[in-house]
Amino acid sequence: MSSIKISDAQELRAHFEELIHLTDEEFASILSYFTVKKLKKHQFLIQTGDHVHHSYWVKKGLLKATFIDEKEKEHIIQFAMENWWITDYQAYFTQTQAIVNVDCLEDSELYCLSYENREKLCSELQKVEYFFRKKANSGFVALQKRMLSFLSNNIKERYEILLSQYPDLFQRVSKTIIASYLGVSRESLSRLNSRL
What we know:
Pfam families: cNMP_binding
Structural class: alpha+beta
CATH topology: Jelly Rolls
Radius of gyration: 18 Å
Number of domains: 1
Number of helices: 9
Oligomer: single chain
Distance between the termini: 45 Å
Strand content: 15-25%
CATH class: Mainly Beta
Strand order of the largest sheet: 1-8-3-6
Largest sheet: 4 strands, antiparallel
Protein name: Cyclic nucleotide-binding domain-containing protein
Helix content: 40-55%
CATH superfamily: Jelly Rolls
Number of strands: 8
């Protein structure tokens, strides 16, 4: 992992400035806490059992977080594309071993923020703490909506919600991966596609 030039990080600045205003000095300070990591398609960022020291902001690429159950079935928990964050949140915030895998569906460039540096940033700049709190709140809402969708919507409704929220995703991943995220078989998704 290496440091990041300010000229290469304008998308990250814009991401922060969706919620907070930053001076050039403040952004330079924030950026100094990040490092960059590049991975190829199919490479793992995190594997079950790893110690998770970083949270990752996606500058370029697409990743998925998965959980493997006792029957060796893979369940997709989250996708992360440009301008999204990803990690094993339980392991990151408790500084324990990963229980999920995170791997690259495309070549990816990630900005890495260690737990220690995140805590320092939040203590040094109140507006950064506000930023991460608002991002966490949005994440909780999205997770609850997804859980309720699984409980109350049929496959067609879940498919249409995903398509309306993330149309680009359907161009970037296979139908098998979409089916796994929706919790259905590839065959069920094919039947649904033929009816739509």
